[in-house]
Amino acid sequence: MTATSSGVIGVFDSGFGGLTVLKALLARLPEARFVFLGDTARLPYGSKSRRTIARYAAESAQFLVNEQGAEFLVIACNTASALALDAIKEAVDVPVLGVIEPGAAAAAANSLTKNVMVIATEATVASHAYAAACRARGLHGVEKACPLLVPLVEEGWIDHPVTEEVVRIYLKELLDEARQNGQNPDTLVLGCTHYPLLRPVFERVLVELTGPSGVRVIDSAEATAAEAARLVLETGGFGLLGDGEAPRIQCFATDSVEKFERLGSRFLGLPVGKVELVDLGG
Ligand code: DGL
User: Can you give the pTM of this predicted structure?
Assistant: First the structure.
């Protein structure tokens, strides 16, 4: 990667939740060019096997690199990062950054008790990728799969009493498990790209369950964007346009383009623009 590279930064997610990572990347690298792919036809990844996730993620990465010229990839999907990072690195010849390591590093920087909680999809939790990344940093992590949350977010039930009740049940169970293990968690890692949209709900419920300074929420999207920006700037500002040029974003999806355009703006905090349909096979 060099300062003169004309390449773009590829951002990949199983759906459009990864736009929360793109949003954080835009704030950190306001003049970079991005190509985003949401594999909406094959979402959810979180309930599938490692083998299937690896195949889908590798094909998606190849689309971004081989067909869209991405020269750096951010895997803005916790499930793909947890189960398919090696497969992606084998499939493409560009630097690849996943969300797990930055998320765990941010948790380590935040936690005083060294006890953290992680919520994620079933596949991410079953892989124990977060638990391992936490352990490597001297943290004890309890993990919980929260499979109802992605569909609730996809439905747009961001600030909805049903969603709040589901969050309350999950967090109560997780806190009980941590306490039964003799732990005193002070950090909650949002280990799924859909969850940052529910951050106010998590924070509200955590105050209710643990008091005002009980548990802090760590967003792996924000931590990943910070690490991506560090790598990009360290390597000479790869993917940056000239001063003053507007951020350029091109979004692709493998299905549900209209839904992507409608809900994607909510994840990105900006209009996503025209989303192009791409067929990556079954
Ligand atoms: N993008 C996935 C993740 O961050 C959530 C959606 C899915 O299950 O595919 O884990």
Answer: 0.92
